[in-house]
Amino acid sequence: MTTTTTDDLPFGLGVSLYSYTDDIGVTMTVEDCIADVADLGATGLEILGEGHIEDYPNPPTAWIDAWYARNERLGLTPTLYGSWIDTRRFPGRGMTAAEGAAQLELDLRLAARLGFSFVRPKIGVISEDLRVDPIWQEAVERNLQLAADLDIVVCPEIHWPTIIKSPVVEEYLEFKERTGSEHFGLLIDTGVFELSPYPRRGGSASFRMGDGSARPPVVPFVPVSDLADVMEHTVYFQAKFYEVDDDLVDHYIPWREIIDVVIDSGYTGWLSSEYEGHHEPYRAPDQLRRQHALIRTIAAERAAAAPALADRN
Amino acid sequence: MLEEQLIQTAGFRNVGPEGARTGFQLRVRSPYYRGLWANLIEKPTVTVDGERFDGDGIRWTLPGGDFSFAELQEAADARWPLGHAATLTVPRDGGLARGLHDVTLELRLRMSYIPEELQPSIWTASRKAVIVK
C-alpha cells in the first residue's frame, strides 16, 4: 500500500486533474497540471483514465516511464483513477455484464500499471432517480479478486443528485456485505453537502441536457451528519468545491463540519480536490490553492484544539 | 494546444479540387472533460449562414481514422481523445464562398451516467470563420 501523507495533516491532500478541465489542452498540458498539483503542496494525484492517459487504453511505454519519473521527482502519489462503464455505449442495445466487467478489468489493469490504489467506475443509470444499471453487480464482482491481487479498492462515487441516504447507497452497502470484500467501498463527493446552488458561469459553448423538456430531478442536498453514518464504508473523498473567496471562506461547502466528521471517524485517507466552479481558464490553479489553504487552516485549528479537549475529558 | 472556442480557427476550409469543391471542413475541440469511445458521439448539426447540415452525412476524422457517422457508431475501438480536435467534413456541392461565414455547431454526446430523459448532452457553439480559398 502506498503512503497517504501530506505534511503533518491527519489525512492526505490530493488534487484531481478534473479540476483543470477548462485549462487542459488550452492553456496547460496534462504534464503542466501535474506539476501544478505538486507546486501547490498536494501529495496525491488523481486522474481520469480516459481523460489524461496518452493513447488510452494503450499508453506508450515512454509515457509510463515519464509518469513514474515525474511523480518521483515531484513527490506525488497516484491516488485514484476515474473510470467509466458506459452502459449506453452500444446503439440499440444495452451493455452486457461481461462487457461491463471487461471495461472495468481494462481500467483496473491500467490503473495498477500506473501505481494507483483506487479505481472509481462511473456506471450508467437506468432511471430518473439514478438507479444504477443492474449489470454493475456482476461487472464489479467478477473483478473483486483482480482488485485484491492488484491491491486496488473499487469505489463507486456518491455524487449529487445521488445522496448518502438513498437506494443506490443501500445497494452498494448490501453488495459490500454480501461479498465481504475489502476491495470495495464508497467514494463521497462533497458536492452532496452543498449549502446553496452555485451560480456557475462561463464555458466555451452553451450547454443543455436533452432535446426535450425533461428537467433534472429535484433532490435536496444533505446535512453533513449523514456522513458519519457511512464513514466506516468510506474509502475516498472527492473534495468537490466551487469557490473559495478572498477571505478563504467557502460559502457553498461546509468544510469545518466535514473535516470534523472526517477526523473524528479516524479517517486517514485522501481528500482529493475537485474544482468545479466557473468554467474559465486560469481559475482552477488559484482556487485549488485557496481551498488547500482553507483545509490546512481548519486542520491546524483542530490540532491546536485537540489537547484542550483532551484535558477537559 | 487548441483554442478555447470549440470551432477552431485553423482547419475551416473547403475540400475537393478547386472549381469542383465537394464540401467543407471544421476542426472541433471536445468540450467534454474526458476522451470517449466514438460510439458515444451522436449526430451533430452544423449550420452555415442559416443552411443546416445534419449529422447523417457528416464524416468524422479522429486520430484513429476517418469514419462516416454509421461507421462511428459501429467502431469497436475508435476514440475521441481529450486534447485532439476532431475534423468534421460536411458535404456541400461547390463548398463555401471565400470570406466570412456564420458557423454554428451543435455537438451531441451521450453520457450513460445521466438519465436517458436528459440525454444527449448538447453543446452549441457559434463563431464567424474564414474561408480563404
Describe the structure.
The complex is a heterodimer of chains A (313) and B (133). Chain A has one domain (12-198, 217-312): Alpha-Beta Barrel (TIM Barrel). In chain A, strands 5-4-3-2-1-10-9-7-6 form a nine-stranded parallel β-sheet. The mean pLDDT of chain A is 95. Chain A is an alpha/beta fold and 313 residues long. The two termini of chain A are 35 Å apart. Chain A has helices spanning 30-39, 49-52, 61-74, 97-113, 135-141, 144-150, 167-179, 225-230, 255-264, 283-312, and strands at residues 12-16, 44-48, 77-85, 118-123, 153-154, 157-158, 186-189, 206-209, 234-241, 270-275. Chain A is built from ten helices and ten strands. Helix content of chain A is 38%, strand content 16%. Chain A is globular. Chain B has 133 residues and is mainly beta. Chain B has one domain (13-131): Immunoglobulin-like (Sandwich), CATH 2.60.40. Chain B has one helix at 69-74, and strands at 13-15, 23-28, 36-37, 41-48, 51-54, 59-62, 65-67, 79-80, 86-91, 99-109, 121-131. Chain B has a five-stranded antiparallel β-sheet. The radius of gyration of chain B is 15 Å and the shape is globular. The relative contact order of chain B is 0.28. At the A-B interface, helix 2, strand 3 and strand 8 of A face strand 3 and strand 11 of B. Strand 8 (206-209) of chain A pairs antiparallel with strand 11 of chain B.
Q: What would you call the shape of chain B?
A: globular
Mean pLDDT across all amino acids of chain B: 97
At CATH level 2, the architecture of chain B is Sandwich
Cross-sheet strand order for the largest sheet of chain B: 1-2-9-6-7
**According to CATH, what is the topology of chain A?**
TIM Barrel
CATH fold call of chain B: Immunoglobulin-like
List how many beta strands of chain A DSSP finds. 10
- Tally the structural domains of chain A: 1
Strand order of the largest sheet of chain A: 5-4-3-2-1-10-9-7-6
Secondary structure: helix percent of chain A: 25-40%
Mean pLDDT of chain A: 95
Total discrete domains of chain B:
1
Which stretches of chain A are low in confidence, meaning pLDDT under 50 for 5 or more residues running?
A: none
Number of helices of chain B: 1
Would you tell me the structural class of the helices and strands of chain A?
alpha/beta
Tell me the CATH superfamily of chain A: Divalent-metal-dependent TIM barrel enzymes
Radius of gyration of chain B: 15 Å
Q: Largest sheet of chain A at a glance? A: 9 strands, parallel
- Number of extended strands of chain B: 11
Shape of chain A: globular
Question: What CATH architecture of chain A do you see?
Answer: Alpha-Beta Barrel
